[in-house]
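Weekly structure sync - notes
Attendees: PM, LS, DV (DV joined late)
Agenda: review two folding runs queued last week.

Item 1: First target. Sequence and structure tokens pasted below for the record.
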Amino acid sequence: MNRSLCIAACLASAAMISTAADARGPQRIPSWYLGVSGGVSYVKDATLTDSTGAANSGSLEFDQGYTINGALGYRPRYTNSFFDYTRFELEGGVADNEIDTATVGGIVTGVDGDVQVATVMANMLIDIPLSAQWRPYIGGGVGVGRVHIEQDEDTVFAWQGKAGLYYTPSSFPAAEIGGGYRYLKLTDPQFTDPAVGGVTEIEYDAHLVEAGVRLYF
């Protein structure tokens, strides 16, 4: 009797695990993927802090720009644990925004230039298995960002938060198509100011809206 109950319990557990796996979609083992995405970049107005004082400090305003990213990712094999829903990525990206105006010492002037940012990030993301095809995600990452303005550049620590939604077409289960939002923050880069002989520190906060595709292999 007890042996029959144990067998029945094992079969029921196996059925529950199988059902959960079906809800997550096809089990890709190993689960490597390549991802590409692009979108628009909105950079928050930046505060300029010059080492020579308030007379040479001020702010920058930016126009809407663009972003392009690529990632190599890995989803661990299913273990019936938290890691069933995680992904890990090495991501590289670029963003470019033209500078609209600069306010320095209370004087507003137009600027013919842009800020270019290249990042390399290590990300961890968590998928939320709504169904076999729809997967919202949330996560973040840390890395480095290289900021280029005019003839000067600086490399600083960077971090980001990400959220979005991807869809797996039933006709092509090795692909995921979707989009999301990304907040990118760089530790304030510093640039030399040859005009006054000081060092200017600039804030960088960007809001990125992207669409892209992932291909598993």
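Item 2: Second target, run right after the first with the same settings.
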Amino acid sequence: MHKPRYLNYLLSIAISAVLLSSTAYANPTNLKPVGEATMTWWGFTLYQAALKTRTGAYQERQYPLYLELTYARPIKSEWILQATDQQWQHLGVTEDKRQTWLSDLAALLPDVQTGDRLALYMPSVQQHLFYHNGKVLGRVSDPLFAEQFLAIWLSPRTSRPEIRAQLIQANNP
């Protein structure tokens, strides 16, 4: 049986749309810098954080967002998970959510070495990807996860308001 020509045309449009959307989803290189901040702990630099958006300005709940951490020293993934849990406790994330998300993160996050980059790209409120040194690590299945992960740095209730202010350029018009 012969397929009508318009079905091939529709199929090619559908395939092109999927390829284009997955390329845009997985490629945050067209974003502009907003701000940078250095995270220290007891005088030791842990990482340099950089925030990027489409416009180069931060607005809450405006996407895409890209947060990249460039590590200044080796850090085990267990330590990253512990620090994440502490920050989520500070932000009031429930125990159930924290444990589920930490388990998901444990499957994704590697130990980092000096100069390694971990990043979270959030093209929309319910989509995200983690990167390690520019390569996709994966994602956490819960669509609420990414917003709460970014809240560690970007929430007005963060435990490090000076980091937030530098990342979002709060004092610049």
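Discussion on item 2: Helices lie at 5-26, 77-91, 95-108, 145-154, 161-168.
Action: LS to circulate a short write-up before next sync.
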